[in-house]
Structures are given as C-alpha cells and as structure tokens.
Amino acid sequence: MILRAALLAGGLATAAAAEDRRTGYEMMSPELRAMQDDEMSNPGMLWVAEGAALWEAPEGPAGRSCAGCHGEAAQSMAGVAARYPAWDEASGAPVDLSGRIALCRTRHQGAEALEHESRPLLALAAYVARQSDGRPIAPDPDPRLDPWRETGRVLFTARMGQLNLACANCHDDHAGGRLGAAPIPEAHPTGYPQYRLQWEEMGGLHRRFGNCLTGIRAKPFAAGSPDYVALELYLMSRAAGLPLEAPAVRP
Amino acid sequence: MVAMVNIPETAAPGDIVEVKILISHPMETGFRTGADGNLVPRDIIHELRCLYAGEEVFRAEIFPAIAANPFLGFFLRATETAEVELLWTDEAGQEHSERRTLTVG
Known about the structure:
Oligomer: heterodimer
CATH class of chain A: Mainly Alpha
InterPro entries (chain B): Ig-like_fold (IPR013783), Ig_E-set (IPR014756), SoxZ (IPR030995), SoxZ_dom (IPR014880)
Pfam family, one (chain B): SoxZ
CATH architecture of chain A: Orthogonal Bundle
CATH superfamily of chain B: Immunoglobulins
CATH topology of chain B: Immunoglobulin-like
Number of helices of chain B: 0
Order of helices and strands of chain A: HHHHHHHEEHHHHEEEEHHE
Shape of chain B: elongated
Protein name (chain B): Thiosulfate oxidation carrier complex protein SoxZ
Number of strands of chain B: 8
Distance between the termini of chain B: 33 Å
Distance between the termini of chain A: 49 Å
Helix content of chain A: 40-55%
Strand content of chain A: 5-15%
Strand content of chain B: over 45%
Number of helices of chain A: 13
Number of domains of chain A: 1
Largest interface: A-B, 10 and 12 residues
Strand order of the largest sheet of chain A: 6-5-7
Shape of chain A: globular
Order of helices and strands of chain B: EEEEEEEE
Domain Sulphur oxidation protein SoxZ (chain B): 8-99
Enzyme class (chain A): transferase
C-alpha cells in the first residue's frame, strides 16, 4: 500500500514536471516557429533532402545502400531518433545516432568513415531523425546505459573552465532568464541535428556542447566522444516525453 | 545543388499564386577570413530569374549580405497552363534551373 502510494506520488511528480518543462521551441519568436513549422521555409529540410538521396546511394565495395538493408526509412527508422543514444554490443559502449550511422557505414557497407559533424553524416542523421518528427522522446531502458547517464549527470553539474561554471549553473539555476540578449533554455535536446541561424547550417548536439564549453572557457571534448554521449544520455532522460522536432530551427 | 521549389500545381485563371524557392548554398561573402588568415573567396548566387511560359516575370539581384541557404518568395498571376522555370546564376556564372508546370483551368 505504501509502495503504491509512493509510486502514485512519483507518477504525479513526473506528470507535473512534464508540464513545467519548456523546450527551446516554446521560447522562440512566432516568426521562427513559423519558419520551422513550414517545410518549405525550414532550411533543415535541405539536409533532409540530401540525407534521403544518401540513404539510397550505394557505398563501399559491396555497393550496398542504407535502403538495401533497412528498406523504407519511413517504416524502419520511425521512432529510432527518439530512443538514441543506445547501447552498442560490439564496442561495449553507448553510441549516439550519428555514431551509429557512422559505424553502420564502416561495419556493414565497408565504406570510408564519416566524421562527426561532417555534412553527409548530418544529412543522414537529419533524414533518420525526420522519421520520428513529433514523437515523444523515449530513452532506451537498457540498464547498461544507467552508469553512463550518471556520468552525464556528473558532467552536467561539474564546474569547468576558467569561468568555473557547470551546465547546471545556467540551464537549471537560470533557465528562462537571459544571458545578454539570448534566452537561456532548459537544455532539452529535442531537435538535433538542427539548423541554427547563427551557424547558417545544420549542426549536431555535440557542436552545441562545444559552443557552451568554449563559452565558459573550458576545453571542449571531441564531437562523438564518450563524455558527450554520456551527457547526451543524461539530457535525453531529462527530456523524456517531450516531442522530437526534426529538423528544428533555432536562433 | 539541392533546391526546394513550391508552386501550386493548379490554379484558376486570374488567380495570384505564390512561388517559393529555398536553395542550398553557402553564400560566402568574400569578406571573411579563414583559419589561415586569408580571405575566403566570395561564393554567392548573383541573380535569380523566373520565366513563366518563356517570359521573364521576376528577377532578383542577390548580394553578399544575404544569408546562407537563401529563401525567396514572390507572386505571379496565373493566366495559362505553362511551365514555370526558376533560374539562378552562381559565382562561376553557371546557371542552374528548376521547372514546374502550373495547370490553369
């Protein structure tokens, strides 16, 4: 009975937290939201179109395409981006969506590796993520990921850099406030890879991490590094249930 | 080069239809320096034209101040079933085009 009450209270707390959370989309101006919502004016769709072409393109010595194994992305990739990062059996570590696509290329297509944050990899990731547009973020329940989520939480709350700031100092303590003219979001990675007007191109979450770390004058980790994947795992668990935006537009 | 064009497929005679185009392009201004300290050469789209039934109905000159991946929208009056052709000229002077057929009636 006590257990049930506790579970019920836990459930209620989660529901309340879901209502309190605000995504970056909700903080944007109506003009930018309209830009994202209209497929025709959303520049991220250019990467989605490129990704769709790459999905069908044969690669490597076997001349195998993504579609050769996975078929129609609309079916095989639906919901995948909402679940990642996920566990990789072969390397015994979690991988993010871009990492998985890159591994798939080298392992199964025998093609040359694609670098994190490279244009073709972003295009493929954007195309795969597009198949989960609007779906709630549903982190992988694999228990092997839990220690990595904990590492991510530690990274999120650890003070770093010359300014001696943790992610949490801005994104928890001052979320909704402003840093100069820019609103401080709650760090829900709901729309990566995303088109940032500041970048004038598509970029991934790990590039965004690098921006924040440079901002606090810390040395950024490498895109695709285990530390970033751990941080991504933690942030995605905080964002569980929020709708995925693919591709998102941000200022 | 990827470009996305949006023109209604059909229209009634005399209707005003919106033509929209989004072009994947870096629009490098020519004023920025690269990692080596040298200027990155300018690479922009210089001109965009629209032909409707072979006749020019819209023309825009584009300059370095336009952001990457330019989006242009304009209106035209649908008078006859004909091809709408969008042509744009890049830094090398090469012309790219996209065509759609607008059915009027």
